[in-house]
Amino acid sequence: MTYSAAQDWTEPDLLDPAGAPVPEYGAGSLADLLPTLVAGQGVPGFTPVITELTPADRNCVFLVDGMGWEQIKAHPAEAPFLASLLGSSRGGTGRPLTAGFPATTATSLASVGTGLPPARHGLPGYAVRNPATGELMNQLRWHPWTPPKPWQPYPTVFQQADTAGVATAQVSAPAFQSTPLTKVALSGGTFLGRMTGEERMDVAAERLAAGDRSLVYTYYSELDGAGHRHGVDSDAWRGQLMYVDRLVQRLAEQLPARTALYVTADHGMVDVPFDEDSRIDFDEDWELGAGVALLGGEGRARHVYAVPGAEADVLTVWREVLGDRFWVAGREEALELGWFGAPGEVDERVLGRIGDVVAAAQTDAAITASRNEPNESALAGMHGSMTAAEQLVPLLEIRT
């Protein structure tokens, strides 16, 4: 609230949840990418959803963690090769894809690998409630351990492509080979662990050439780490972007014939100022904590789980306190608005994982938790919400 010169209290303008820029599920989201590519390779059961793309016998997806569309546009000097490809994005339209909500790694990788939106694959955030135990489950670190198959029962697109005879491979850091997240989101075909970015590019090119029809996925995470630690306006982040630019060019120069390379990302990032107005500390705010049993999600995309019976009150308070900076919706409203997928397509098993209240940042603000999430609360760069800086991701294309 603000106090006017006339000594009258005036209510701030509250954001309408219906005004949030909903991801382009079913036409131009990360979940639509692999189904479109394998449909063009003749894999049964898939249709080309991103209509701007044309088929290729060999497809390579290079996903750079944290490399949003807005960040590439803002740094042409650091990423000249990537910037030169902006016009090629999304089939030469020069348009980005949308990551999906929340714009966070676990959710996005599951969307990429399964070809499904969060409302169906069931990884709708960084940390969500497990309805079976009542505990928060961190879906990136998979803690506490939860059986992977019941949590995400759908086959991956990689598995279905491999079964259909497409030479399928993932080339990533060795540490990711046996993680539950890899198992539920990215498994299928051959996993090839390589330590350096250069090795991954070289092996990805080799695997593309190994099949008459091939699908290769490769991944680089360090750009995201630099952004979290130092911010997307830091020298460390810029240095990582320069390195990624060289990696993409290295891979592009080795592509075999009849290949389409797509460079994309799981989300972008924003820097959140280190001040009390920008970082609202849930652990120190009795008003936000009233009636809340669990705080999930992450700073810019929160799942709020209310004490039974307090759902309506929690929604009212969160809207009153945060509604000028966050889109705040109840679970059913968020689902009806299509935040997690097209309205009506949520799986029953996923409902209880979504917060009774969902809050997504519209400004450069975050809801931190200094005591319960000290590491996450100290991050300089954050992501998760539906702003352009977080939600828009490239789909840069090179064809041979």
Care to describe what's here?
This protein has 18 helices and 20 strands. The longest helix has 18 residues, at 235-252. It is an alpha/beta fold and 400 residues long. The N and C termini lie far apart (58 Å).
What's this model, at a glance?
This protein has helices at residues 33-40, 69-74, 80-84, 89-92, 105-114, 118-121, 148-151, 157-163, 180-185, 197-209, 222-230, 235-252, 286-289, 311-322, 331-336, 348-351, 374-377, 388-391; strands spanning 2-3, 9-10, 58-64, 97-98, 127-129, 136-138, 167-172, 190-193, 214-220, 259-265, 270-271, 279-281, 292-295, 301-306, 326-330, 357-361, 366-368, 381-382, 392-393, 396-399.
Please render the helix and strand layout as text.
Blueprint: E1 2-3, E2 9-10, H1 33-40, E3 58-64, H2 69-74, H3 80-84, H4 89-92, E4 97-98, H5 105-114, H6 118-121, E5 127-129, E6 136-138, H7 148-151, H8 157-163, E7 167-172, H9 180-185, E8 190-193, H10 197-209, E9 214-220, H11 222-230, H12 235-252, E10 259-265, E11 270-271, E12 279-281, H13 286-289, E13 292-295, E14 301-306, H14 311-322, E15 326-330, H15 331-336, H16 348-351, E16 357-361, E17 366-368, H17 374-377, E18 381-382, H18 388-391, E19 392-393, E20 396-399
Parallel strand pairs: 3-9, 3-10, 7-8, 7-9, 12-17
Antiparallel strand pairs: 1-2, 4-19, 5-6, 10-20, 11-18, 13-14, 14-16, 15-16
Helix pairs in contact: 10-12, 11-12
Look at the structure and give the mean pLDDT: 96
Oligomer status: single chain
Distance, first to last CA: 58 Å
How many beta strands in the DSSP annotation? Answer: 20
Strand percentage, roughly?
15-25%
Shape: globular
Largest sheet: spatial strand order: 8-7-9-3-10-20
DSSP helix count?
18
C-alpha-based Rg, rounded? 21 Å
Low-confidence stretches: 1-9
Structural class: alpha/beta
Major sheet details = 6 strands, mixed
Helix content: 25-40%
